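Regression test case RT-17, inverse folding.

Input:
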């Protein structure tokens, strides 16, 4: 049990570290198979290429799991409502984390509990605002607007002039996505997505603090329980007894597994062999993955301008990560 808890904590912590400060983990030695040996025979190069691509495939699979989980959540909303889906996801995920981790409750200071509370509030706010957004605007557009939160955090933290260029590129993508005004998307849905992005940035900050104060994934489990308790009244008020319908409960558990448990496991496996800057760049592809999931599962087709807008935001995210790595003199060695 404790090993599983440690694995979940490592995956969550390293995921946040890669997005917020990718240069810190990039100083690690390159993974086996990540450096191509000069003059190696083809019989040796092929397995090494496969080994180098394996962790990348795991990250992409994790992104697919998250975004297809969000698509399932959208399908669940007519049954349980946006707030009901948030409640089901967080409650199921919290229950799994508490059972697996069995966090201790004694021996922590008031500041420790304050950090857990702040992390839980950020988690509840991020999920609530995001699901309110995807209830009103296409999934790809919602994730594109949401990812601006971590991008802004990265730009502010780096304090490099070049990142103003990436910020401008992302802003251009947002303007293009909105068609010059958010009335085309639904201004309320767009505002929810931007709010979710701000809460995502807050989530990153307090996740790092929680990881420093609590062993393994204890802090994550406790914070998720806080988030579930905060959203429970909202879900009950909106959906009531609908949340107890067996098929609705089953889909809620599926969303929790697809959006939390499975991606953390896949990302942990990938981060053992993949430098954090590469991981962060791959995470920048999530708007494109979300757009694909929205099209395949929900039938949400993208207009050419929407596709270009998503591409601009992805390019800005990749550029910000790359420039942050170069600014610290760290080379991405995959």
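Golden output:
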């Amino acid at each position: 049990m404790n090993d599983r808890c440690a694995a979940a904590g490592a995956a969550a912590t390293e995921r946040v570290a890669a997005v917020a400060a990718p240069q810190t983990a990039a100083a690690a030695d390159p993974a086996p198979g990540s450096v191509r040996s000069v003059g190696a025979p083809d019989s040796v190069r092929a397995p090494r290429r496969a080994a180098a691509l394996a962790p990348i495939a795991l990250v992409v699979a994790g992104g697919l799991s998250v975004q297809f989980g969000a698509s399932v959540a959208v399908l669940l909303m007519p049954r349980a409502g946006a707030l009901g889906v948030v409640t089901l996801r967080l409650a199921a995920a919290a229950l799994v984390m508490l059972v697996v981790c069995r966090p201790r409750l004694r021996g922590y200071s008031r500041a420790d509990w304050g950090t857990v509370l702040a992390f839980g509030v950020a988690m509840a706010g991020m999920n609530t605002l995001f699901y309110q957004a995807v209830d009103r605007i296409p999934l790809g557009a919602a994730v594109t607007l949401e990812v601006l939160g971590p991008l802004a955090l990265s730009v502010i933290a780096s304090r490099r002039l070049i990142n103003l260029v990436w910020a401008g590129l992302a802003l251009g993508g947002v303007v293009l996505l909105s068609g010059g005004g958010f009335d085309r998307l639904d201004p309320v849905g767009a505002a929810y997505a931007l709010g979710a992005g701000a809460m995502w940035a807050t989530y990153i900050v307090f996740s790092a603090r929680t990881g420093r104060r609590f062993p393994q994934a204890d802090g994550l489990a406790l914070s998720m329980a806080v988030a579930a308790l905060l959203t429970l009244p909202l879900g009950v008020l909106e959906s009531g007894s609908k949340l107890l319908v067996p098929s609705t409960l089953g889909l809620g558990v599926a969303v929790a597994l697809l959006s939390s448990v499975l991606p953390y496991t896949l990302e942990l496996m990938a981060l053992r062999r993949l430098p954090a800057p590469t991981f962060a760049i791959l995470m920048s592809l999530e708007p494109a993955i979300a757009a694909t999931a929205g099209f395949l599962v929900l039938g949400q087709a993208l207009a050419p301008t929407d596709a270009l807008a998503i591409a601009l935001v992805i390019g800005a995210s990749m550029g910000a990560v790359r420039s942050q790595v170069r600014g610290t003199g760290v080379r991405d060695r995959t």
